[in-house]
Amino acid sequence: INFKLKDANPDKKLEIVLRNAVGSFKLNNSFVSIGANHNNHSVYGYFNYKFGEDWRPNSSFDVKNFYINYKYRLSEKTNVKIEFTKMKYLAQQPGGLTDNQFDANSDTSLRSRNWFEVDWNLGAIHLDHEFSSTTKLNSRTFGLNASRKAIGNMDKPFYQDFMQNRNIISGDFRNIGNETRLMKFYDFKSNPSALLLGFRLYRGYNNSIQGEGDDGDSPNFNFLGGYTNIDSSNFIISNYEFPSFNFSLFGENIFNVNNKLSITPGFRYEYISTFSDGKFRSQELDNAGNIIFDTVEHRTNNQSRDFFIFGVGVNYKLGKSLELYANFSQNFRSINFSDMQIINPNFQINPNIKDERGYNIDLGVRTQSAKVILFDFSLFHLFYNNRIGTVWVTQNNVSSFPGINSSAPYFQIRTNVSESKTFGTELLAEINWLKLIKRTTTSKKISSFINLSLIDARYVNSDEPAYHNKKVELVPPITIRTGVSYGNEKFSVSYQYSYVRAHYSDATNAESHPHGIVGLIPSYGVMDISAKYQIKKLQLETGINNITNQIYFTRRATGYPGPGIIPSTPRNIYLALQFIL
Asked: What global pTM score does this model have?
């Protein structure tokens, strides 16, 4: 998904938007934006401050977002845009639950000292240039300087917190890159066609440190002793650096063979270099908890690979507003070293994990005009070799994973499970009933929609019988989202219902476990309603989420913000007021 942030309103020299929302669980969300235009200059920026206590004990959040962009029209053919985004986020996390705890009382919290903090700074420079009416260039240079920190007690949900030293995971992320695209429009057999060529350069640097923090309850993310050097501090468990480099070339061409048929082949060349260099502390304890062995080990890992992937898409117009489409594309998913080095008693990563490779195919029919009926129906197949997933391991079968050393009686491993095949169908339909019945232009709108997906995703050809023909984790077999809305120029109201069928959280398809880390994610259905009323420059909004107050969850966490079941929010109400100057 390519999210596009707003620019200044081109029809106004100055526009100010003021918005404030309040809601359940002490939610308060304030927003202000300013957009201005003068000659060849344009500026747009916003500030958003949101805070609340959430619905479970020991939970709160404080989020600040700031964004600004500046656009300058250098000439009739050249535009420059500079962007900067900052996010500062602090949340207290109430921890996870076991199945029994969730069933007894889903608003239980057994952790009062778990905190999570993010500081995100992202900048970008965009250059758009038209060499001619048929040749255009877009170049984007971007950079990130960010940090992510977590502190807390990561013991299993049913363990009491004895107020001992907490665990800290601290990550710093710095990267810079550029993506440049050249588009050329031309005629192919007297039909308009287009060629896109481009490249991407990326250099990244991540640093991850894990160790002990204090035994307090405040969001203090400083390591004990004040040092992050593992050789000079007994409180540091691991300290790793993860430099990476990526270069890619890509291209695609739309061939309009005639006024009905178009063919779009494409390719991408990738060179990926991932590197890890760091140290971790290895300890052994006796039955009384005394350290009998303590050493620091140094590990490096370097992987470089390059490859081509190809794809092709075909579109055929069946009529004025209906088209048939088909696509085939190869895919690739690279392992990320920065996600591999973590010390967690509930979770391990196979050091021999490999990249994923595969392909996907889809065939469908859709409408080209959405004024009356929007319709898109597709069949798809997705294949992965060496599919990366999570499996439940005990000491009885840990020998199947060379390089994994753990004294825990059971834990999860992220590894290449086996090949996986996914078959599915998806339907998206929306109808504007007034235009369908009356066939006249009207400001009123009564519409309904449905988004339905049916998916069967399974592991196949596995060397381990425990995974063969098991369902791929976190893939619901049925997902339905449907709703109806009514509106005119001043007032609108919408109702939506979402249903997700039960699915599994790990590749062994475990139904449940006393720790709550793996198991079934039960079926759930949620209803929401929202309304909006506008009077000139004033807009009033309100809504109720989870109208029927369903008790459900969508996630079983192995680490933060758990471990264990993370209950979803019950019924909540919000009210917002917006004013545009």
From this structure: 0.88
